[in-house]
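Q: What would this chain look like folded?
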Amino acid sequence: MATLEALTINSGKPKTVTFLPEPAPRPRLYTVISVDDHLVEPAHTFEDRMPAKFADKAPRIIEHDDAHVWLFEDRIIPNAGTNAVSGRPPAEYSMDSARFDHMRKGCYDIHERIKDMDLAGVWASLCFPSMVAGFAGARFSEAQDPELGLAAMRAWNDWAVEEWAAPYPDRIIPMCITWLKDVSLAVAEVHRNAERGVKALTFPEMPEKLGLPSIHTGYWDPLFAACQETGTVLNLHVGSASSIVGGSSDAPFEVITALFFVGSTIATTDWLFSKVPVRFPDLKIAISEGGIGWVPALMDRIEHCFRYKDFTGGWTGETLHPNEVLQRNFWFCALDDAAGFQMIDRIGADHVMVECDYPHADSTWPDTQLYLEKQLGFLPPATIDKLTWKNAASLFQFDVPQHVLDGSWHRDVAR
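A: My prediction, written as structure tokens:
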């Protein structure tokens, strides 16, 4: 019998479905590349993409308690409601599994997604997987039949490249997952995707939390070498190892949401002192949906602890200070970070990018431009350009057409 994965936050709320009035196109103040958005895989994602022997075992959508859920082997995987709430009033947000007809079509239809990006003034987007794959593809690696899981992982990547990204190559930065049960197969998948232009890999921010080898063991070094060789950016999304920092066991949900950035603080520190970016100096690591306000505080603490490095012994004999490696190998993603932008010189303006987080509950859509103006509008125009699009374009080797920078895209949308 299939088992349903539990989602408890606001579970059982009345399933009232209200779509807010369709928003008017927002004025475009900045060119924006959002480096953290999400997609909801449509029901046909795996159709005609699995080997023939697995065609009837592919992940598929079924009805369960008046909701659409994924069935994979004996697991029922919900389409968590908060993953697709843009255009809905916050009072109706819930972790209950949702139906496709209760979502904006832009959640799962790439053509409608582009329209929603136009409404908000977001030129380009990098999209993470949803529940069926997990942020880093962990669910496929957890399959009881590894061969089936491997086939599903490859099928997901084929869909992400061929159907989600390919129709709008100047608007969507392709992102893929990889195989987490065998590093040699993971390396092969990175190369397979790099050959078709993929420059982004979502990877668990702390794989040990998933029962996988720690980043400190050296096990993953061949994968990091492949990413360095191909220019593939490692995107560590907060919570991608199913580990969210909280407080007391009976604390309200606000404790988790208020502490969301803490997981990225821990992950960044873990990766830095693993010396992965020391061994792979050209490896690029993006801390996705982690915010930026905490970065100066971490740098201060690292500076403090470095005074007694001969006692701790973790960073001796290195040419570079750990903060120099932090500012060389890591990129940080801002969503709603007013204080962080005020400390941008301390963080490093060349390594900060912005995000919209459509269609999640945290999203600034459709008022992304307004949020950005309030939070970074005081900065010099050259710095704003770096934060809103130039850093992302450089990191992901993604060209922005000149007519977009000149403003003609906005005029077309406004008409």
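The first strand starts at residue 3 and ends at 4.
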